[in-house]
Structures are given as C-alpha cells and as structure tokens.
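Write out this protein's structure.
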Amino acid sequence: MKSSLWLVFLILFTQFLDASEVLAIVNGEKITTEVAPKNFKTLDKDTKQKIIKRLIEKKLASDFALSHKEITNSKEFKKVLEHVFKMSKKPNKDKSLANLLKENATFEGYTKEQLASKKGLLAFDFILDKKAKEFENNTEEIKKYYEQNRYKYDTPAMYELLTIVVDDKNLANKIYEELKSSKNRVKTFENLAKKYSLAPSNMYGGYFGKIPKDSLNELLKKSLNGLKRGNFTKPIKTEFGYQIFYLLNDIPEFKSTFETVEYQVKNDYLRKKVKEWAIKKINELKNSSDIKIVYR
C-alpha cells in the first residue's frame, strides 16, 4: 500500500518485557520497557542507549501524529487500525475495535502505552504517505534527480555465468568432454558442478552470477569473447585451479532514458524526500521537547 521506506516508521514491537521500568521521560510522559524489545536487559550498554534514543524518536513521532485529528478520525485510518489489530490480537469480548481509537483504550495483551505507540506510529505513517503525495508532482525535481543519479539506472554489458573449478587438469578435461557429449548441457553442467567443483557455488549448480564485461581479466575476456549463449569454455588455468565457464546469458548494455525508468526514479525520489522530511521533523521535535533519559 505504501513504500517500504516510510513503513519502517511503523515498526511495531510485539514482544515486551514482563516488568515495566522507566527508560526516559518525554514532555512529562514516561517511556518504559513496555515498548522495548523483550531482550532489552540482556543487551550491552551502547545497544540499550541506541534503543532508548529510537524509542524517544518513536514517541515524538507518535505524539506528533496523534495530534492530527484529521488523520486519526479518518475512515481510512480507522480501517487500517482495525486490520492491524485483527492480525495481531483478538479483542476482549466486551471491547469493540472501535474502542481502540479512544485515548485510554485497552486491548487484550497490550498496555495503554503500547497501544498509544502503535496508533501513533500508524498515524505518522499516514502523514508520511501524505507527504509523498505532495512530492510526487515535482516533475522537474524528479527529472533532475534522474540526471544526477543516471548511473543507477544504466546497466553495463554483462555475462551471466556458471563455473566449475577443479585442481586437476585431467579431471577438467574429462568434465569438458562429458559436457560436449551431453544433450542437456546446462543440466549436466549443474550436476557436474555439484559433484566436482571446489568453489562455494557448487551447491548452487556452479552459479557464478552476472559479471560486467569490463571487470573481467584479459584471459577470461578472450575465452568468453564470441561464445554463444548455452555454450561453455575449454578448461582455463586460473589462480583458483582449472575452470570451465558456461554462458547462461550475454546481457547487452542498457542506456536508460527518463521515460524508460520513470516509475523507478519517481519511487526512489519519493523515498529520499520522505526520509529527509521525517528526519528533519523528528529533529525539530527533539529540539522543542523536554527529554530526559532515566535509564543508565
């Protein structure tokens, strides 16, 4: 429904400590271990402090979002909130999901602090989604972003390869001859890689990956040059032993235009802008808030 980048602000802890302990106080309200990870007490000091700082940021974002009644009173927010809790817990028989919207709501398995945090983070997620819609009409800015980051959307010419690595020349030649006589070369290559190859890729049938042609050494460039898809090289002496390469794909260079990658560019631009806005807003909230870390 929304980009995974701003959904990161909707991290909902589902495991909590049994005993509540105050970690920090933000604008007179306590942040306790009820909203901390279950293993909080077992963590080292630096990790605990990082978690507390993140909980403070979540608290600031949550309180800010809950003050936007046009969001929390909207039908869409109520619908998503109900769905979130239907997926996580069953309500008490005497409590309707509508009660979740109340300031002092209770819900089976959750404290008031946990509920307020979940509702606030969901509301903040809605704010981020709204911001994304504001930014998505910045066509000229999106094009400028593309020009500045064009390299991300271009693809160099590449080979997609399988490989078999052995340390014995005679074995390499034997494998080569078996491949030549095979009717299903790729299947045979994968089986031989699993059986003989010394490379870690043997468990994946010798899959070597996609390699930019410009990054290959001269020996491999020469061996692969002119090789057609579905064929393989003779054994090549390399620093790893004797290698045979199978050409899965010969991928041509792709030079993008804004039109061909517009959808991806737009999403990348929106993620960047929304993240920048969220960081700036949380920093503003920090600077204007009374924050005290209690847990040391």
